[in-house]
Amino acid sequence: MTTAKTPAPRPLPAEGYWAVQIRMADSKAAAPRYLCHASDAAAARIIAGDLMGPSVTVHGFDYYRLTLPLPDRAVADLPVLGGWEPVRAGAWDGLMLARA
């Protein structure tokens, strides 16, 4: 009898940068967008949740792991570990090109 092997769990990505977009209840409202630096995916979710806040006008968030280098950004200018910064509307498309 052959038994199926359970694949080894994949480790969470290590420290890195994530693009976070808050989903607003009003689809016409501009979605706040941020760039954050987290120790792992779980920490990125915590930062995204903090950025979302307790508002009833929010329906959640999406977050995307990014690869370096980021378009038009020097590493020295990126947020420190645990930090975040708002993303200009025109810069979001460039961040989406850097998705891992």
Helix content: 10-25%
Termini separation comes to: 40 Å
For the residues shown, what is the average pLDDT?
A: 85
The 3D shape can be described as globular
Q: Write the element-wise H/E pattern from the N-terminal end onward.
A: EEHEEH
Major sheet size, sense and barrel closure: 4 strands, antiparallel
Strand order of the main beta sheet, please?
3-1-2-4
User: Helix/strand/pairing class, anyone?
Assistant: alpha+beta
Rg for CA atoms: 16 Å
Number of H- or I-type helical stretches: 2
Based on DSSP secondary structure assignment, what is the total number of beta strands?
4
Q: Kindly estimate the percentage of residues that lie in beta strands according to DSSP.
A: 25-35%
- List the uncertain runs: none
